[in-house]
Amino acid sequence: MISVIIFLTGLAVGSFLNCVIYRLAIPRGRSFCPFCKHRLSWQDLIPVLSFFILRGKCRYCRKKISLQYPLVEIATGLLFLLIFNFQFSIFNFIIACFLITIFVYDLKHFIIPDKIIFPAIIIALIFNFQFLISKQFSIFNYSILSAFGAAIFFLTIVLISRGKAMGIGDIKLAFFMGLFLGFPNILVALFLAFLIGAIIGVGLILAKRKTLKSEVPFGPFLVTGIFIALFWGEKMIGWYFDLFNLTI
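Given the sequence above, the corresponding structure tokens read:
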């Protein structure tokens, strides 16, 4: 029953995040259809359920509703369940909301909005100060060093490629990643982000959906790496050390 409640809460939060994502680009009042501009009533805004009841079409103009809306809601619900079962903390629930917003917004608009990444960084910094206050200096230092190390790494890529391979937003997100994950999980997240990005990039080129000169947002890959490292980073590191008979 608790898991059901967590999942339904995630669906509701996902619906709210869809509004945030849309209004970051187009700040308006109440929710409305992007095609006919008709204001949506409460029965049009029930997470996931409204999409299926309306068969994926606007009640008023019958234009197709983007799959983004139910997908974000379901993804948020599933992530909330994972956090509840594996990494439970209010902090992780809050950060998940920021990361989902960054994932979708960067995927759609090729930019990581400052209105989202800066608050995420501030919250992560405040969270890390607890380790400083409780004199857990190693955890605090690892987080700060991971943040600056990841940011400098991405800054180097931006400078070498003259902004063609990465953007400034990726540097900010990398800094946040270090604060949030610390060491060594930051390494897992970055490795997976580049690996997944390379696989999908090659796949898009082979499918002739993209070319070598096409712009592909890297934020979604970084966010994916963050979540995998959060839930399974320690196990992956343990597996790696066991595979090569290494010791930490």
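The chain has a mean pLDDT of 92. Try to locate this feature in the token string yourself.
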